[in-house]
Design goal:
The chain is of the alpha/beta class. Helix content is 34%, strand content 17%.
């Protein structure tokens, strides 16, 4: 059963919010000048980190509050009504910008092919630290912020506004979680000094949950170009190097989303503060490395939001007090269930149903990562 918003929020999810328009495609969707391409009806749903992660947590039974910004337009009304349809109070902390436009994405998701996006940032660009309700954080156990690379105020000036917000959130008491997204390489965010921004920001972050594509774009552009060209560049040696680099920047837990290959988790040898904030066993989380392969979906109806749902599964597991192996398993299970529906969240059942599916022997994809030396636990 989904959580009641009347319960004290365990998680506050803030950041990017948009309206996703997902046309049904029966095959490749190449756009050619002058050509009409017939498509099916459009699925419209909320998108972005706030709805994707927040609503998935809600479906998993975690009391959550959502904080994002929309415009006072038709798309904004649609986003707010969609949130209220899940729970009347889920839109209570959303900001409506007068005269601003709501962010939207046209999601191109052909069957069996990874999705691509046409995106307008809209009101996300003016979201600032002052749009967060810090009074709500005092009773929360976790604050998650998502998608700063497509929120102009958050990446401008080297991320100073992002750090101001995270510092205020951390002072309020909860553990801090952060995820990313790939910016437009030719846009302003593509020109940001991301290694320096991460170096300055990650000391404020307990849990960092990027994708491998995002990390390589920000930290190893040569490897990113090779990955985008189809080269098989991801192995445990690369993941360990990235994990060491990120832990060295100051975060405690790194969970790297690997798409079809699953999830890689690496933790610091100094996990006490992170564990205390979430009431976890510090010894269980200290200096760990885990790779969790993907579970096999019954069908792949759409991959939109699968990474966000994986994050939600990981965070929900932390709130249940699980260790690194169990948390990674939970994360990949939630991510796999999400692709069984065309939108981001409706394929995710309540956690007891997913847990039963895992216990019943839910089949996983084989682990394909190259093992250069020892296998992770």
């Amino acid at each position: 059963m989904a959580a009641s918003i009347d319960s004290p929020a365990q998680v506050v999810v803030a950041g990017h919010v948009c309206l996703d328009v997902i046309p049904v495609l029966s095959g490749p969707a190449g756009l050619e000048p002058g050509r009409l391409l017939e498509i099916g009806p459009a699925e419209m749903s909320t998108g972005g980190a706030v709805p994707n992660i927040g609503l998935t947590l809600h479906r998993l039974g975690v009391p959550v509050r959502l904080m994002g910004k929309v415009g006072d337009d038709l798309f904004g009304s649609a986003v707010l009504e969609a949130l209220r349809a899940r729970d009347p109070q889920l839109a209570a902390d959303m900001v409506v910008g007068a005269g601003e436009i709501t962010s939207y994405s046209i999601v191109i998701s052909p069957p069996g092919v990874d999705r691509s996006f046409l995106h307008c940032s809209g009101a996300n660009d003016t979201f600032t630290a002052d749009d967060v309700r810090y009074d709500e954080l005092a009773s929360a156990r976790l604050f998650h912020f998502g998608y700063p690379p497509i929120m102009r105020a958050m990446y401008a000036d080297g991320g100073s506004e992002l750090r101001r917000m995270l510092a205020r959130a951390r002072d309020a008491g909860p553990a801090i979680s952060l995820d990313m997204c790939r910016p437009d390489p030719d846009g302003d965010a593509g020109q940001v000094d991301w290694p320096q921004l991460l170096k300055d920001t990650l000391p404020l972050v307990d849990i960092f949950v990027p994708s491998i594509e995002e990390l390589l774009f920000m930290l190893d552009r040569d490897a990113y170009v090779r990955l985008e060209s189809g080269a098989d560049v991801v192995d445990l040696a690369l993941l360990r190097r990235l994990g060491d680099q990120l832990l060295g920047m100051g975060t405690t837990v790194v969970a790297i989303k690997l798409g079809e290959q699953g999830l890689y988790v690496r933790t610091s040898d100094a996990a006490r503060d992170f564990s205390d904030r979430l009431s976890l066993n510090a010894d269980e989380w200290r200096d760990r490395e885990v790779v969790s392969p993907c579970f096999r979906a019954r069908r792949v109806a759409g991959t939109t939001g699968a990474g966000d749902c994986t994050i939600a599964g990981f965070l929900a597991a932390l709130l249940r007090g699980e260790g690194p192996t169990e948390a990674a398993t939970s994360a990949t299970a939630v991510g796999a269930s999400s692709v069984e529906a065309p939108d981001a969240t409706s394929g995710v059942p309540p956690w007891p149903e997913l847990a039963a599916r895992i216990r019943a022997g839910w089949e996983r994809h084989p682990l394909t990562l190259t093992r250069p030396d020892k296998e992770p636990a």
